[in-house]
Write a structure and sequence with these properties.
Layout (H helix, E strand, L loop, with lengths): L8 E4 L2 E3 H6 L10 E4 L7 H4 L2 H5 L10 E4 L13 E4 L1 H16 L10 H6 L23 E4 L1 H4 L18 E9 L4 E7 L2 E8 L2 E6 L17 E3 L11 H7 L3 E7 L4 E4 L4 E6 L3 E9 L1 H19 L22
Bound molecules: 2-oxoglutaric acid.
Length: about 325
């Protein structure tokens, strides 16, 4: 499978520099993803959010910062119990790994290796190298969805998200910090998202909502996301899912340190890291979106907690392996 499977066709995501965006009068609401090169570089986070900078954070009582780490892929298969670990030693290891990977960078690395990425033109269709994921051990320990800004609200000032999203929104943020080769499985989120890359490089695969019929929607419950049964790191074991996936038409975004990617609501996506990374996802809802989407989502959450909705198959509780599904 690994040498012959072509998978979905891809085109490069729409891309613009921050200067070009500003010259057009700023960001306008849109239904398609947009990669804004360099958006984060003028924000304080660009200087302050290094691996060693975050490692120095201390709680007000002087105690070490701990967080809940994701233990393997959660979007597909069985959710393993998360791990509660100190953050600083993890960050120091990532800093050392980042320097090593940069020094040894290969043109052949990635789903869309440098050589292909640099030669492909806007609007041209191309295929990814799915063999790249075959060597992965899906992220054993990934500091994914850390709500660091709840614990350290002053850090919110480091991201001038209002310079992109000018009108009022209810926003909440999650940090994703991890080594190279993390995988976030295929899913979509119900709010729009400005995904800000502060350190490292990620490959972001996006599938606009019209691809839904090929996405093998899963029954696995997640509070903010709709998940897929397609496990991009186990396509060889999923003949039905990989055939369906191959019929989709995706957008490829290589998101480098300093870039921000607008991910519209209901856009399916999955993400892998080429380097140790620090990213901040800023989710936002307008007032009508809160009223229309927030209510039903909270109701599902309540029913789930009462064991009445998709209990035993979720990203938030320990669960059994689903029958006849590859984990
Ligand atoms: O960076 C990642 O690993 C996942 C990000 C993501 O899925 C999101 O922001 O919705």
């Amino acid at each position: 499978m690994t040498t012959t499977y072509l998978g979905p066709t891809f085109q490069l995501v729409d891309t613009i520099t921050l200067e070009e965006l500003n010259a057009q009068g700023g960001f306008q609401p849109r239904l398609r993803p947009l990669l804004v090169k360099g958006a984060v570089k003028s924000w304080p986070a660009w200087e302050k959010w290094s691996f060693s900078g975050i490692a120095k954070l201390q709680r007000s009582d002087g105690s070490e910062v701990q967080a809940t780490f994701q233990n393997g892929l959660v979007e597909q298969g069985v959710t393993r119990p998360p791990l509660h670990l100190p953050v600083a030693p993890y960050l120091r290891e990532l800093e050392a790994a980042a320097a090593k990977i940069r020094a040894e960078w290969s043109q052949d690395t990635g789903l869309c290796p440098d050589r292909l990425w640099k030669s492909v033109r806007p609007g041209e269709e191309f295929y990814l190298d799915w063999g790249h994921l075959q060597s992965f051990q899906p992220n054993k320990v990934y500091l994914a969805q850390w709500d660091i800004l709840n614990e350290f609200p002053e850090l919110r000032e480091d991201f001038a998200i209002r310079s992109l999203w000018k009108k009022w929104r209810w926003t909440w943020e999650y940090v994703f910090i991890g080594p190279a080769n993390t995988v976030t499985g295929l899913h979509y989120d119900f709010p729009n998202n400005w995904f800000c890359q502060v350190r490292g490089v990620k490959e972001f695969l996006l599938f606009p909502p019209e691809n839904r019929e090929y996405m093998c929607e899963s029954k696995k419950y997640d509070w903010g996301a709709t998940l897929s049964d397609i496990n991009i790191s186990k396509l060889a074991e999923q003949p039905r899912e990989r055939a369906s996936f191959a019929r989709a038409s995706g957008l490829y975004a290589r998101i480098e340190a300093g870039d921000a990617l607008f991910v519209p609501k209901q856009t399916w996506h999955c993400v892998t890291a080429l380097e140790p990374s620090i990213s901040l996802a800023v989710f936002g809802l307008t007032l009508p979106e809160i009223i229309l989407g927030g209510g039903p989502s909270e109701l599902r959450s309540l029913l789930h907690k009462l064991h009445l909705y998709r209990w035993g198959n979720c990203t938030c509780h320990k669960m059994e392996a689903p029958a006849n599904k590859s984990a």
